[in-house]
Amino acid sequence: MASFASDRSPLLGETEPSLSGYLGMEDCDPETGSFLNAQGLRLATYFYPALTKKPRGAILLVHGYGCHWHWEFTSFPNNTYKNSWIESFNETGLNVYGFDLQSHGLSEGLKGYRAHVNRFQDFTNDTKQFYYHCKAKEKGGKVYVLGLSMGGCIVSHVAEQLSEDLDGLILAAPMLRLERIKRKPANKVLLPFSACISACWPSLPVGSKSKNPFHPDIGAEHDADPLNYDGRVRARMATEFFWAVDKAIEDAHKVSCPHLVIHSEEDTMTDPEGSQMFYDGTPSGANKKLAWVTHLGFWHGLSKEPQHEKIAELIVEWLAGLLVRNPKALGKGKGERGKKKQQTKRAKTPSSRRKRTPPKNLK
């Protein structure tokens, strides 16, 4: 694995990324692989198989801006599999798929820049490409899509463009409105010029993000992780963000698949009003639910902050009605039975001997 400069993305190996040597992740042992996107960039992929004898479905997790996939969906501290959303989904019988978005984590980016794309649609195209790969791997089984923060905006676009091809959608603290971010003092000065700067110098860092006011220790770990990006939002990204959130709300009426939206009203990173607007804009007859989790003490990091397991339980409970005819057949979290299955399977298939069959490269 090559090292990388502070502003550039690391280089992938020929087909398989390595997680060794990075912050935490000692108990993370995914099957790893990669695929080439339409732009010729190689993106790192991850797969965690279900811990039940027979998988009951699959879920594709899409991470947010500036972080890598494992940081987003493993638990705090030290990016651990134990007590993470990944483990929760595995224990309930779900295969878990994921990938580092282009210019994030171990995936390549345009001209080597981190946290930078030419168009927001590039994120959407990559996600659609990998979604269809997951569908092929599942051989007709259901594959649900979950996006957190910016990932929520990405998968909302996926749902709007794929319509009935999508089995189900979960938006967790989705980036669907950014008025609060716009009002930050630095952004008031710089963002009005972002469109002009984007055309002339798209990679220039101009915008600022919100810091975690509830859990600064989680924020500190984010900043210390070398695979995360903690710089200012680049000019092209800023203009694409504003286009993307407006487009997601404008096209919400195209979402015909079942969908669950989860948000905290204390979120100052992504506006909770955006979740309400999206929910109101989707068809009234759709199978949909909007869940506010402010009472649980959340800010924005629904997969990392204290009581994140409650969010996993909420998601699993909602998915139960979609995955099986009898919802009780799908576990609701990390029960003793799930823990025993995990311990048994891990004991029989130690890390050093576990069979690895990374996904074939996509075309």
The CATH architecture assignment of the domain at 31-178 and 248-348 turns out to be: 3-Layer(aba) Sandwich
From the structure provided, what is the oligomeric state, counting identical versus distinct chains? Answer: single chain
Helix-strand pattern, N to C? EEEHHEHEHEHHHEHEHEHEHH
The CATH H-level homologous superfamily of the domain at 31-178 and 248-348: Alpha/Beta hydrolase fold, catalytic domain
Q: Considering DSSP H and I runs of 4 or more, what fraction of the residues is helical?
A: 25-40%
Main sheet?
Answer: 8 strands, mixed
Task: Describe the structure in your own words.
There is one protein chain. This protein is of the alpha/beta class and about 375 residues long. It has a domain at about 30-180 and about 250-350: 3-Layer(aba) Sandwich (Rossmann fold). It has twelve helices and ten strands. It has helices spanning about 70-75, 85-90, 120-135, 150-160, 180, 185-190, 195-200, 215-225, 235-250, 270-280, 310-325, 335-350; strands at about 30-35, 40-50, 55-60, 95-100, 145-150, 170, 205, 235, 260-265, 290. It is globular. Mean pLDDT is about 80; it is low at about 1-15, about 185-190, about 325-330 and about 330-363.
What are the key terms here?
globular; 363 residues; Rossmann fold; 34% helix; two-stranded antiparallel sheet; disordered N terminus; alpha/beta; eight-stranded mixed beta sheet
Structure summary:
With 363 residues, the protein is α/β, with parallel strands linked by helices.
Structural topology:
Blueprint: E1 31-36, E2 42-48, E3 57-62, H1 69-73, H2 85-91, E4 94-99, H3 120-137, E5 143-148, H4 150-162, E6 169-172, H5 179-182, H6 185-190, H7 194-200, E7 205-207, H8 216-224, E8 233-234, H9 235-250, E9 259-263, H10 272-281, E10 288-292, H11 308-323, H12 336-348
Parallel strand pairs: 3-4, 3-5, 5-6, 6-9, 9-10
Antiparallel strand pairs: 1-2, 2-4, 7-8
Helix pairs in contact: 3-4, 4-9, 7-9, 9-10
